[in-house]
Every structure is written in structure tokens, then in C-alpha cells.
Amino acid sequence: MKDLAELAVEMALRMGADYAEARFHDDISNAYVLRNGVPEMAGFERARGMGIRVLVGGSLGFASLNRPDKALLERRVREAISMARASARMRKEPIRFSEEPVEEARWEVKAKEPLGDVPIEEKMALLYDVDKALTSQEEVRAQVPFRLLQLVETETERYFVNSEGTKIWCSVPRVMFFALITVLEPEKGTEQDMVQKGESKGWEAVRAWSLPEHMVERARAIGHVLREGVSPPKGALDIVLGSNVVGLMVHESCGHPYEADRILGREAAQAGESFVKPDMLGQRIGAEIVTVVDDPTIEGSYGYYLYDDEGVRARRRFLIKDGVINEFLHNRETGAALGVGSNGAARASRFNREPIVRMANTFMLPGDHSFEELVEDVRLGIYIKTYGEWNIDDRRYNMRFVGRECYLIERGELKGPVRRPVLEITTPGFYGSIDAIGKELSFDAGTCGKGDPPQGVPVWFGGPDVRLRNVPLGGS
Amino acid sequence: MELHELCELALKEAQALGADEVAAAAIRSTSRQVRFANNEVTASKTWDELCLNVLLAKDKKVVLTSLLNVEPDAVRSALKDLMSLLAVMKERPDYAPLPEGPFEYVDIPGLYDDELASLSEKAIDLVEEAVNSALEAGGRRIAGTLAFGEEEALLMTSRAVEAGGKRTWAELVVRALADGEASGMGVTCGTRLRDLDPSSAGEEAGRFAKLSMRASKLGPGRYDVVLGRPAGAVFFDIVAGMASAFYVDSGLSCLAGKLGEKIASDVLTVHDDPHLEGALGSRPFDDEGLPTRKKPIIEAGVLKTYLHNSITAKRHGTSSTGNAGWVVPRPWNVVVEPGDMSDEELISEVKKGIFVNNMTYVRFQDYARGDFSTVIRDGVFLIEDGELKEGVRGLRLSDNVLNMLSSVKALSKDIRQVHHWWMEWDTPAVFTPLVLIERVGFTVPTK
């Protein structure tokens, strides 16, 4: 079917396309789910197919198929072109793609322990071990009546070819662990925790996660919050945010609003637009110590890639630099529209999805404070180590994060747990309140959703711990 | 390869490999989409897919596969891999066999429409109609999606089930923006071309966007709320999703342990009805081949049933409700039974409150308790003395599913079919009126 990718591009040009690309995928995904100790699901997906994209008279057409059938391919390419032509009357400005270097490259992630070499028994045994650890009262010191555990391993092989001569082949294994646990204290009710881990590696990554120990630690902390957590103090406080919270906050309030397709309105009907406008480049959005980047090229990261799904070479993007809005995320369409070119942010989750502007690994760069230094001159505050409920409006301006594992800070010392502090803050309010940044950088994995039909792509988000000054907690 | 050949291949090969039970579902589909934004078409798409899903069981162990590579050799190889996986799995204590067929199925009219199946480039006309209508009503930048398609599906099981059918579907979502924050939304959907009303969807989106332009701030607190249909669809998508026994047993539902209890106000009755004409979720059989049927999920405020497949039913000591998913049981068409007031009469009941047309980005602090918050948009208005006034900005709805169910005061009499992008629990369609709920919590950012 790989040969058909090149044929598809030829066909499209012959039928009148100004530009054509074809992306062939051969994807494998194996999933194992343990629910309360019962093997709820084990299974796999095998997907092989091709997505074709054409530019015709300034309109964009896309078609996909999963059968290696030349006649069918010709029909679908023809349809992509005819639909694009028919929609040209509803375009004021033609869609253009930015000029990018023609590339020929092969890149791959080689697993130290290939996923196929690890017996399935071992994979299931790991989930049983996690479940056993979570049900050990001695270890957790609380009941965990609901435990939904999922392990997913994927391997994607992709071949991209376009009418300009770019040809990119890649192969990437990924592993992902997800858990939703419900911790119960009879007198206090329940509190839940969600954990996700993911890397572009083989089984060696899963081993390094030490999942049974990690999950016990999380459950024990939530149990402690349930048993002893007090209501957060009122009034304006200093807040130390853990890396886990900072990571998601920069993903939501910097990564998404700097996606140029949102800025230009292309996602308006679904995920939404952005409070950021093209002329805001160079404007101050936060404290000078704040720099946020998105970088697909971190080896082993969950969002790792070296060429994007338009065949553009990936690089680190400085979204906020020294507190100033510095750069947006672009694919070739938005890169042309704003006259800056692509910076390699086009991603497609599967063969049957169009590549759109996405994040990869978004994080705040670390500063120079140890955790003790962040806490030591806080007179009254809280430390929000992990988050639970969160959301942000469709302009990415008004956000809310409810703490899960949180502690009181009094006179520079970490005290007992605090239950459910609500940080409800605007985006400039957040970046403008940061006065110190920790020096330890860490990441969490997520599956970022966007597009219609929805596309979940693997990402990391991260950062150091940071300190906010003088922020009143929200909530009712 | 035809659907029948594909299912037969899977059944025969799997049985030859030693599986006790096999279910094979083959689906051939062609789907299309026209996306638009800023009054322009941004992309048109076509998907052509032939997919085979297989469930194998042996010695009380169950494994699944979903194949988008359906070459006969690839299918054979996948089945062998599946048997190897089965060999190392552990028994399920709650194992239940697939239902023994054959069954008789009802004939649901209006599931397939030739006119919709052959729509192709005429789809652009419908988009243009919706965009123009939204612009005329006061929207300035119009975005949305027209998605439509056809599929033919066949399910065969080793327990004498052979069930299939063709269906078409279409959904047009229009979002109008009038300035940076003023927005409105309209939805029209169904299984036939004549179910679509692009003008009305566009008009509603444009009108709400225009009405939202004049806006004020409102402080946090509790207000009576009227949920518009897109918001009602999001709320009842969650409620029906939480009735799925899989979620009940996973800590993902605040309906756990509440069967037979009063969980909502007397005025609220919610059915799952898979036999509605023109409805996106209508189907005569579920994924295990059992005939589907209408059932109350909530009746006069009482939680009547969870939604089951054979395995969850066994676990709960009951019988399947005909809602299989092989892993997760799911609702088909969720119908919120109407009240007796017109939309205007319902709004006129509110002295001071908020109209919320759409809810997005619903996230839970604790699914088991039902604590959540959501971003409200696409027409959020102050209601004063029974009338919609200016738009309200900056508020977030923060409450609890059970509190809100108990506080439903009234429903309007006009129910409409809704499906849109923010229905994240995947109910195919919710039929909902306007819903009046008392004393719902709202919060605002503090900095």
C-alpha cells in the first residue's frame, strides 16, 4: 500500500491538483484493562490505510481509505478534488501552503526492550501487581474500592510523500499507562485520582515507572487528604504550584491559545478560538522569568517526532520568551497565512485524519529555586501538588484547576493537607503572578484532544514548581 | 471483500482455532464532512472504510480486536494473535456467554435515505444556506461542520445471530461569532436529508450571537438556570452515560448504588429509545445481537435501570437491557420527556436567572460524587422577570450532577434531536426540551 501513496500523489496531480500529499500508516495498538482486579478487556487494533490531501484552486480536500484497491483510490482522489473544487466558491482567499525545504529522511525510535519481545503475561502481571498494591490496606492506609487500570502499547509506521518531492519514513513505539482510582474514607466520603504516564520508548519505560510503588504513593496521599484535609484559608494567598499543575496550565493557557489555526478561527465551532491575536506578538503576558516552550525533539518524550505530518522538520518553539508572547505554533497553512512559514507543528493522530496544528511537549523552562526556597518566605499559602477537575474557556483566558493533593504553608513550612482548593484565574493573572520558579523540571503525559472528527495525540506537559503571589482562591 | 464473507471468514477461522464463542461485526462506511470557519469552507473530507471487529471467548476469557486491515491474510494472522492473547488471559469471574439467537428484530423506518447517501457536492449548498442564514440573523463570522455518511453493518455470532442493516446520518453544527466573546450555536441532525434544517440552525446561531453582544458581568452565586438544548444534550449525555453499568462499576458514575432510589425531581423522566424514526442512535440490535428496546432510565425522578450488556448484567444479577457495547454498554437515543410549557412560558417562570445555551469542557473532580464544572458559551443570558436580557460573560457553572437532577423544576414541551462535538460521553443523540433547574452554582476567576 506504500506504493499506492506515490501513485495517489501522481493521480491527484494528473486530475488537476496544485499540491498533493499522501500519508500511509501501519499502526498497531494493544490494550489491557483491569477493572477492580477483573481483566475487563484485552485486545488489539491493526490499522493500515492512507490519507490523501490536495490543494485545488485554493481549496483543501482530504480523503482516506484502508483498502489497497487502485480503482477505489482513484475514486476517492477524484472525490477529494471535486469536493475541493465545489467548495472554492465559498472561499474569499485561496488557501496556500508556506514554502518549505524538500526533505528526504528516515527517522525512528529504537526500543531497548521491544514491546513484542515482552510476554503478554508480564504485561498483565504488572496490572495485577498494581491492583494488589492498591488493595493493600497496610500499604495505602485507605480503601480503594474502584481501580480502573489501563496499559496501552502502540507502534506506528508512517510514510509521507508529497508532490514537491518530500519523502519521510518513520517508526515509533509508544507506551501509555492510565489509572483512575477512587479512595474511600468511611466518614469522609471519596476522592479520586487520575494518573497518566507515557513515553516514546519500549518496555524499558514501563519498568522505570515503578507503577505499583507510584500508585500506592498517590493513593496514600489522597487518603491522607481525605482523613485530615482542612478547608483552604480565605483571602489572598501565596500559592506554590507543583510541576504537575504547572504543566497542564501551560498546555491549556499557552500551548492551545498559541496554535495559529485557533488564532485564525479555524477551530471556532469546536475547541474554540484564542484570546491571542496575530498582532499580540511581542506583547508582555507575564513576569520576565517566564519562558514556555513546545519541543517535539525531546528523545523518549510522549510527543516525540523529528518531522511533522506535513514533512516539515521539527524544532523547539519559544511560545513565551522572558514573559513576552514570542511565537505561535504553525502548520504550512497558518504559516503561509501569517507569512512566517511552518514551524513543524502539523500532526495527524491516524491515517484517516487531516494534519492540523498541535502541541508536542509543552513546558515552562526551569528557574533557580529549590522547593525549600519557594516555600520558605511564604507566610500563609498553599502548595497544590496535583490537580483534579480543570477546564478553560474556548478563548483560553478563564481557567479553573481544583487541587487534589495539597498542603498548607505557614511561616515558610509545609503543614497538613488541604482539601480541594480552587484556583480560578485568568491567563494573564496566572503568568503575571509568578515570582519564582523551581529548578527541577518534570513532565506528565496526556492525550490532547482537538479537531473534528476529534484527534487525540500523545503529548507531554511539564514544568518546574512555581510560586504565585497574592492570589485569592476561587470556588463557591 | 463483502461483509458476509468477512464475517464468515472470522467465524470459521476462529472456531477452527478453538474459540468457544465468536462475534464478528463488519462495517463498510463512507463518511463526508465539510468544515467551515470565517464564512469560508476550510476543508472537505471523505472517509472510505471497511472495518472488522471480532470478539473471541474461550474458558470464560474474552479478547477483542478491531481491524482496519481486512485483507484475508491479515484477518487470519490477527485471529491467531488473538488466540495467543486469549491463552495467557485470566478467567473472568463475571463471564457470561453471548446471547443465543436467532432473534427477530423490529423494522425501524427512516434509517436509510438515498437522497442523503447521494448528497456529495450539494453539501456545499447546505453549508452556504446555513452560513447566509447565520449572517442575516446577526452573526459576523460563522463556523461549523456538516458531517454526513452512510454505512452498512453486519453482525454474525457463533450463537446463530445474523443481523445487519444500512443507515445514513447527517449533522450540521453552526457556531456564529459576533465579536470576540459573543457567540451562538445551532444544531440540526437526523438520518434523512429532510431532517436537516440548515436555515434554522444558522438563524439560531446568528440570533444568539447578536443577542450576546451587549453583555454584563454577574457575580458568583446560585441562580435558577434554563439549559438550552445544546447544554441539555451535554448534561443528559453525561447522565445516560453514567447509567452504563461499566461506568457504575468503575467509579465513573454518581448513579452507583442508587438503583430504585429517587435521584431526580418528580418532573424528570428520561428514556433510552432505540426505535425512533429519523434518530441518529436508532438500531434494531445491539453489539451482541440482542434486540434493542425502549426503557426508562429515570422515571418520575426514580433511577429505574442501568444499561447492560450480557457480562455487566451477570455481574448485577439481572438481564441485558440490549445496550451492548462489547465492553461498555451505552445508550442509543436518550429522550428527555417533555413538559407542557412552551419555551417562552418556561423562561417566563424565572424571576432572576441565567439562560445557558451550551456547556463545554465538562470536567469532574469526583465522578463517583458527581462534582463537576463546565465552561458555558454560545448564548449565555441574564433572565429577568421572565425575559432574556443581555449576555453574561465570565461565569463558570460549578455544581453536582445529583444536585442538578434533584433541582429540575420544569421542562418545555418542544423536544429536539441534538448531537454535537461537546457530547463527550458519546451518546449518539439526545432529544431534549429546555430544562429549568433551580439554584445552580456559578463561579468566576479571582484574578
Itemize the secondary structure elements and their pairings:
The complex is a heterodimer of chains A (476) and B (447).
Chain A: H1 2-14, E1 19-35, E2 38-56, E3 59-65, H2 70-87, E4 104-108, H3 120-134, H4 137-140, E5 143-162, E6 167-185, E7 189-199, H5 203-208, H6 211-228, E8 236-241, H7 243-255, H8 260-263, E9 292-294, E10 317-321, E11 324-325, H9 332-337, E12 346-347, E13 356-357, E14 361-364, H10 371-376, E15 380-384, E16 387-392, E17 398-403, E18 406-410, E19 413-417, E20 422-426, H11 427-433, E21 434-437, E22 442-450, E23 455-463, E24 466-472
Parallel strand pairs in A: 4-6, 8-15, 14-23
Antiparallel strand pairs in A: 1-2, 1-5, 2-3, 5-6, 6-7, 8-24, 9-10, 9-14, 10-11, 12-13, 15-18, 16-17, 17-20, 18-19, 21-24, 22-23
Chain B: H1 3-16, E1 21-37, E2 40-58, E3 61-67, H2 72-88, H3 114-117, H4 123-136, E4 141-157, E5 162-177, E6 183-190, H5 198-211, E7 215-217, E8 221-227, H6 229-242, H7 245-248, E9 270-272, E10 295-299, E11 302-303, H8 310-316, E12 333-336, H9 343-348, E13 352-366, E14 371-384, E15 387-393, E16 396-400, H10 401-406, E17 408-411, E18 416-418, E19 429-432, E20 435-443
Parallel strand pairs in B: 7-15, 8-13, 12-19
Antiparallel strand pairs in B: 1-2, 1-4, 2-3, 4-5, 5-6, 8-20, 9-10, 9-12, 10-11, 13-14, 14-15, 14-16, 16-20, 17-20, 18-19
Helix pairs in contact in B: 1-2, 4-5
